[in-house]
Write a structure and sequence with these properties.
Elements lengths: L6 E3 L5 H12 L9 E3 L7 H9 L6 H37 L13 H17 L9 E6 L3 E7 L7 H12 L5 E12 L7 H12 L3 H13 L19 H10 L6 H10 L31 H19 L3 E12 L2 E12 L3
Parallel strand pairs: 1-2
Antiparallel strand pairs: 3-4, 4-7, 5-6, 6-7
Helix pairs in contact: 1-3, 6-10, 7-10, 8-9
């Protein structure tokens, strides 16, 4: 900072980042308040960087103080409860678990409640007693070649005798008697913006990546400028997010599988999503920050696959809802109620 006239702080745009701003200022006392500015940005993109430079603000002392207060509370609560747990439970824990060298039972304001939830869930699993149940499905010939499968309205049934009686009654019936047929129009809304939890779910289900590995790759994609900050609870896009520029960039990258969908969005002049999602007040949802062909992503197949998941989810969130007809047929066989539900897609949407 020697010889520098102005100081602009580019720390993470959350309370922790704001607190670090003031840590920096403590070692730079030569800078007066009128020579210090703070950049507020949500992604490492050209648009966000220019926007942050045009809208510089002052560091927020209240947010920094909130972090100081939280840190002090964590320390005081942690020390107090650690002392309490150690004095009350150390000897019992030594005997029960055979830990003769146990000297301390630590308490963490976040870790200990989380451990409680894990233990409670494990107790539920251990205490679970499986029960045998029966399900009844009836296959009916429709015409000469087609078949449909109807399900018993009482599935699953925990009474084996009742299930066998129902099966016998259905077998003894030559034809089903239709009691009602209904049709209702339904819609499936597109997904909301991606947060960290959803990113980890997609990484696990679609790519088989562990949470630790997924976050390693996401952090690498973020620091390389391919996706926005991957640690967020927010699923609602900010009103200032430039969807048009992002979609146009992906439409121009012809090698991307979702480029035709982006072209359609531009041609249809689709309105950006304004409803749905939750604003947790931390960081915007996880989105691509630029269109990148396969060769531009370093880090192997997993990095490219995770980048694709982020892009596809983002594009899907901009598409219209899917609409379909849900049709339900209720029939009777030997006094038993059977149901058949099927769907007919009207508009695929997202």
């Amino acid at each position: 900072a020697d010889g520098v006239g102005w100081l602009c702080l580019w720390l993470d745009c959350d309370r922790e980042g704001e607190n670090i701003c003031f840590e920096v200022l403590k070692v730079l006392p030569e800078f007066s308040a009128d020579r210090i500015w703070r950049a507020s940005f949500s992604a490492v993109t050209e648009l966000e960087v220019h926007r942050a430079l045009q809208r510089l603000v002052k560091p927020n002392a209240c947010e920094a103080a909130a972090v100081d207060a939280r840190q002090e509370l964590d320390l005081k609560v942690g020390c107090s409860f650690t002392r309490l747990l150690t004095r009350a439970l150390r000897d019992a824990a030594r005997r029960k678990f055979g830990l003769s060298k146990l000297r301390l039972i630590s308490y963490g304001p976040c870790q200990t409640p989380t451990l409680f939830f894990c233990v409670e869930r494990q107790r539920e699993i251990d205490a679970f007693v499986p029960k045998q149940f029966w399900e009844l499905c009836v296959t009916v010939a429709v015409g000469a070649r087609d078949e449909v499968e109807l399900k018993w309205s009482r599935n699953p049934c925990f009474d084996g005798a009742a299930a066998r009686r129902a099966a016998d009654a259905c077998r003894a019936t030559a034809a089903l008697q239709v009691q009602s047929a209904t049709c209702s129009r339904r819609a499936a809304a597109p997904p909301v913006g991606m947060n960290t939890v959803l990113l980890l779910k997609l990484a696990s289900n679609a790519l088989g990546l562990s949470p630790h590995r997924a976050m390693e790759i996401a952090e690498s994609l973020y620091t390389s400028g391919f996706i926005s900050y991957p640690r967020t609870e927010t699923t609602k896009y900010p009103s200032t997010f430039d969807h048009q520029t992002m979609v146009r960039e992906h439409a121009a990258c012809r090698s991307l599988p979702w480029a035709p969908l982006c072209e359609w969005l531009l041609a249809a002049r689709a309105a950006p999503p304004t409803r749905g999602g939750v604003d947790a007040g931390d960081h915007p949802p996880i989105t691509p920050t630029r269109a990148a062909p396969r060769g531009a992503i370093r880090g192997g197949t997993s990095a490219w696959a995770l980048y694709c998941e982020v892009c596809k989810h983002y594009v899907a969130s901009l598409l219209p809802p899917a609409t379909y007809d849900e049709r339900t047929l209720v029939a009777a066989a030997g006094g038993e109620r059977l149901e058949l539900t099927w769907h007919r897609v009207i508009e695929r949407g997202w």
